[in-house]
Amino acid sequence: MTPLKYASVFYADGKRSNRVEHGMDEKRRAEEAPGAPGGPEGAPEQAPEARPKGTRRRGAALIRAIHAAACEEAAERGLEGATMEGIARRAGTAKTSLYRRWDSPEDIVLEALHAAYPMEEPAPEADDLRGDLIRALRLMRDSFGSRPKYAQALMAVLVASWARPDLHERLYREVFDPRGERFTKNALLHYADKGVLDRERVTDVVADIGEAMVFKHMLDTMEPPDDAYLGMIVDQAILPAVGIDPRTRTAADGADGGPGGTRAS
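The structure corresponding to this sequence follows.
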């Protein structure tokens, strides 16, 4: 799950903002810092749109609104340009509400990314390895493609982390690792624990195959892979890598994945 791949895929339309890729310039940072005077020209256009306050929200509803606002703020302004004031305005809440729980915009953005990061759930019975692998890759494809603000916020944090090892470590520790590290890895380890395949075959390289192949397809075609292509990734790359020949699957296997196949030798 490399920053370069995210950059190429989610900003392939050429509309990425220099604020996201390189951070905001010093003048803009000074103008938008908390307590700093705004510029006389164009300031209303640059201010994030406020959400109608309406009924006062509490608890989980308020947290979800703040998370969504944090992703929007980071997506549009970059992590370095995100402010507590901007997040509060987008969420339709008071800035003091944010400081009761978080110390910085970075803390909110990372928590928001973790809360909404997709996580695969393999079949508890471990009877559908091929299907679970396809569904894991489908989850990756559909979750980011259907949520552009979330994908752009993730990209903004990844870009910022290139120059900040501490942020890079936090991103993996607080977002990626708790949610399974890589797509297909949870499924592969689950089936290894159930004795379907050899756990020693689930190396970091093998766990990277699915993600790498999906991103490679998107880089080459500028389109997400369809389900048939996801099936080919599983049949021609992942299953052979863990010692399973997809041609030996039982007759009950369907196009979307059936019983998990033979035990790897």
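Residues 117-248 form a domain with the Tetracycline Repressor; domain 2 fold (CATH 1.10.357).
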